[in-house]
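Course assignment 3, question 2. Fill in each field.
Student: A.L.
Task: Predict the tertiary structure for the chain below.
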Amino acid sequence: MAILSLVIPCYNESENLPSLIERCATKVLLKDIEVVLVDNGSTDSTSEVLASLLPSHPNMRSVRVPLNQGYGNGILAGLRTCTSTYLSWTHADMQTDPADSIRGLELFEGVQNPHQLFIKGRRYGRPLGDVAFTAGMAAFEVLLLGQRFWDINAQPTMFHRDFFLSWISPPSDFSLDLFAYYMARRGHLNIKRFPVHFRERAHGQSHWNINWKSKMNFIRRTTAFSFKLRRSQASWNGREN
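Answer field:
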């Protein structure tokens, strides 16, 4: 059994898949890692590309989500099929190298309590406007939730399986990144960050970071979930007291 499962949600990523699978085959699978590619309700030829390429790679498999219900839903569908000690996710667009998961896995080695460790990349090489947007969102979450956050949507995101099993009602959209980070903070996990190079997207288009209108939609959905988290936090604090 693999020690780490790397879940990669793929929504209309048929053009990126050959490069992604090749990168995983030559770098990621040199370690005891399985790669789970989630066809997240794609409407292009993603399923056909996966069916064609994956039989040559026994440590890679696919999960099919018939109807796209969000980025987070695709990740959760993949995570629920995994039995590895450590779980993780990253993106299919190759802006973050899937091989970064190897560097993240090394941070678990020699740790006395690995189930208390939460690992996340920290991006560099991004456009200044995107960095400013990230800083603004992080500042908002710090003020609202009273926890320290930075570069919330950076990948990979990595943790012990026990941490995943403790989640209750995780969100099905891009708020999953915030949810996991918040739960790690709330659970007093040891959070380690490591630098990852953020590259230009090779093919296709981002499904949220297209223009300022798409950013505003992202802000609206994220802030709605953030206020939901705050209400939940008040409820949890009340029960603990």
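Instructor remarks: Residues 8 and 91 are 6 Å apart (CA to CA). The longest helix spans residues 212-240.
Grade: pending
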